[in-house]
Amino acid sequence: MTTKQIDYILELSQVLNFNRAAENLFTSQPTLTYQIKAVEEEIGFLIFNRSGKGISLTPAGAQFCISLRVFREDLNKAIEQGQNFSIRYQEDIKISLPGRSSIYFLPEIIREFANIRPQTSISPIFFAPNAMDLFLRNEIDIFYGIGDQCKRISEIIEYPLFESHFYLVTKTDDPLAQKDLIHMEDLKGRTLMVGGGSPPPLRAIQQRIINTIPIQYFNSYDHETTLTNIASDKGVCISPGFLNSHTPEFAWIPFDCAETLPCYLYTHKNNNRPEIKELLNTITDVYQKHDGFPL
Question: Where would I find the HTH lysR-type domain in this sequence (predicted)?
Fold first, then answer.
């Protein structure tokens, strides 16, 4: 099946009229009919029902077109990215970063790195669920990790980036949002959201609060769900600062605790490209330059 045949199928599935689809595709009706039939013979099932009243998608054809449309969109994106890359760049570095806080740093990182390597592009992958797997398959060059996430993985190099502190997250109109520092006693009688894949230091803080003061708690699936619950007046949470998007909807107040969450960048030992090292230096320099930025 060719890309032209895919376009023929998708256009016909939209208009369900051979003559109109042929006009939209700037081809003849016999050519369109022939190409559709050729594909159906190739794949072994009918995409369209033909009758004297017109045409319609078969159940199999309807499902096939859904998958085909997704494939065509992904293919178009790949072609466009390839065209852009071939015009401007000779190298590309794929990097995994936390999507929220890094959005404040990444533009500056890209600008500064462009002064060093103008023909090397940076392709960010923002906290994809499978980022670790992509990194282990060498599909990501620089991986952002937290805590002991990568301690037992061999053949990688670890670069300390920053220590993320912990904050109480509330709505901006919450009385606690007016404080400069939150102590455990401030949470008496409140509802604390816990869980959601919390790293060990955060779980320790949550458990200490629950065991020490009268407080209600419930499990929240992930950080997005937690923020939704906070916005719905269902409770508050303790969160590492690297998850802070620094938007005005929520207040992030420093929480009084000794725990921090170390954040690192990782590369593969066998990836000796000089631009990787230069980008690591640029990232580290930018983060250090903003040492007072709440993370």
Answer: 1-58
